[in-house]
Specification:
358 residues, alpha/beta, two-stranded antiparallel ribbon, 12 helices, 15% strand
């Protein structure tokens, strides 16, 4: 699969996405600085999240507190209304970009030569980014993996789809993939993802990447929410075709995701190291490099004699030692040498050569 002429394939140099999300805190100038720094780090793409104020109406009875009672008895709904939503509503409204601001940022990315990707969270945002901005790829958030009508609508835009799999069962992922394919779109990348910020090591489960690759025969990447650079690098070693990592200019900045995001130094490490790992993985075929071959005679051993020996002497095991360099008879030939007669005198520590033996 290609995204803007970049080949997306497992076990190659991964496509690096700097997830800006809402780390721009609703400031276009800050977003542009983040784009510049992502380019400086070597990222292939930057990604935003796009939503409208209608995101708040997606919660049952958001605008009708009197009717909430029927849901607030449910512990999850109570938690949503009382703990989570109040913390999100005001910042999300503050951090929201308008379509025109996104257009400005898309144009800025085009001018700077970096790929602009977006996660649209409603149908209007899909239309705007796919039809108006003509983005190179659409990212689907984990929360929408089981929103199959939504996936069908995205798929029909005929754009490459990057599908995060956080919170999803195998059956849900399978249905999502089938929904996209049934709509006539086979341009799919699956991102293994754990929707915890940050997840503990024991639930990261990078081996799931192998399972997804085997079961769906699709390229598989990793959407990372861990601290630091270790897990992205481990994912590259597992063959990740895409690494998506939240990006910030300051981990202490006000906002949702700054603390688990890569800063400039960390993102540079991810980009640079992700280029080295596929090269180092190499091939499953066992080969010896020319550089190693050049060291063989220096580091390996030869058969040598443990004392002065005269011509005609029949060699015994006690007559032979193994010392460097490896320019003579190899140690593995010991049994073929024992019992052979010397054709010339040898002194202590002399290397035994085939021409020394009858």
């Amino acid at each position: 699969m290609n995204i803007s002429n970049h080949i997306i394939e497992d076990f190659g140099e991964p496509f690096i996405i700097a997830e800006l999300g809402v780390n721009h805190n609703g400031k276009v100038d800050l977003a542009k600085k983040m784009i510049d720094k992502a380019i400086e780090c070597g990222c292939h793409a930057v990604k935003f999240q796009s939503y409208g104020l209608n995101i708040f109406s997606e919660i049952c009875y958001e605008d009708n507190p009197d009717k909430r009672a029927k849901y607030e008895k449910h512990p999850m709904m109570k938690k949503l209304f009382e703990e989570i939503h109040p913390k999100l509503k005001e910042p999300l409204a503050e951090y929201m970009f308008t379509d025109e601001q996104f257009r400005e940022l898309k144009n800025y990315c085009d001018e700077k030569g970096v790929i602009y990707i977006c996660t649209p969270l409603d149908y209007e945002r899909i239309d705007f980014h796919a039809d108006d901005l003509d983005v190179d790829a659409i990212k689907v958030a984990s929360m929408d993996l089981n929103n199959y009508p939504f996936l069908d609508y995205i798929a029909r835009k005929n754009k490459p789809i990057i599908l995060s799999t956080g919170m999803s069962t195998f059956e849900e992922i399978e249905k999502a993939v089938n929904t996209i394919k049934k709509a006539g779109n086979n341009q799919i990348v699956l991102l293994h993802c754990v929707s915890i910020y940050p997840p503990d090591d024991d639930i990261v489960n990078l081996n799931n990447m192998d399972m997804l690759r085997d079961k769906f025969n699709l390229p598989v990447g990793f959407s990372d929410h861990t601290f630091g650079t270790l897990m992205p690098m481990a994912a590259v070693a597992k063959g990740a075709c895409i690494i998506e990592k939240h990006f910030t200019l300051d981990k202490n900045m006000e906002g949702f995701d700054h603390s688990i995001s890569a800063n400039v130094e960390e993102m540079k490490q991810i980009v640079e190291q992700s280029k080295r790992i596929p090269i180092a993985l190499g091939s499953r075929e066992r080969t010896v490099s020319q550089a190693e071959k050049n060291k063989i005679k220096i580091f390996r051993r030869s058969l040598t004699v443990t004392k002065d020996l005269e011509k005609g002497h029949i060699l015994t095991k006690q007559d032979i030692d193994f010392k460097r360099p490896g320019i003579g008879i190899e140690p593995g030939e010991l049994n073929n040498v024992i019992g052979k007669k010397l054709k010339r005198n040898l002194e202590y520590d002399d290397i035994i050569f085939n021409e020394d033996l009858e």
